[in-house]
């Protein structure tokens, strides 16, 4: 059947070959972050719902987190140049702390998503995605 009666493309079946898996990863999620399997299964039931794709995008930890500093004039709160530098430094430290806490929570959140979304299969191992540490 391969999902023909469900209104889902046949390539989303469980027995997809490597080329089809690459197409799924390209269209619905990156294989290296461990969420493509969750996306494939959710698309079988909810083909048009994009919420799962957005959750998987938010929980990916295989890409480097970037921090962008605001413009210098936005940080200048005082009259002296020293106060603006202190504000910029404080902002960077606070932003870095938020990013680190978020990065530490990503694997646990993605694990909860994966384990809650997949049906256990005794013959298939769960994929272990790589963790970006750069």
Automatic annotation (TrEMBL):
Keyword Cytoplasm: no
One cellular-component annotation, GO: anaphase-promoting complex
Top-level taxon of the source organism: Eukaryota
Keyword terms, alphabetized: Cell cycle, Cell division, Mitosis
Gene Ontology terms: biological process: anaphase-promoting complex-dependent catabolic process; cell division; metaphase/anaphase transition of mitotic cell cycle; protein K11-linked ubiquitination
UniProt entry tagged with the keyword Cell cycle: yes
One Gene Ontology MF term: molecular adaptor activity
Descriptive protein name: Uncharacterized protein
């Amino acid at each position: 059947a391969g999902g023909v009666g469900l209104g889902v493309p046949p390539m989303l079946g469980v027995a997809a070959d490597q080329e089809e898996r690459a197409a799924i990863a390209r269209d619905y999620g990156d294989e290296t972050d461990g969420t493509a399997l969750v996306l494939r299964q959710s698309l079988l039931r909810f083909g048009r719902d994009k919420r799962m794709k957005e959750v998987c995008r938010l929980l990916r930890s295989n890409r480097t987190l970037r921090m962008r500093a605001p413009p210098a004039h936005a940080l200048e709160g005082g009259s002296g140049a020293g106060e603006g530098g202190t504000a910029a430094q404080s902002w960077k430290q606070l932003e870095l702390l938020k990013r680190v806490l978020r990065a530490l929570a990503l694997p646990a959140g993605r694990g909860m998503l994966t384990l809650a979304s997949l049906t256990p299969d005794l013959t298939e191992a769960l994929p272990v995605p790589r963790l970006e540490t750069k």
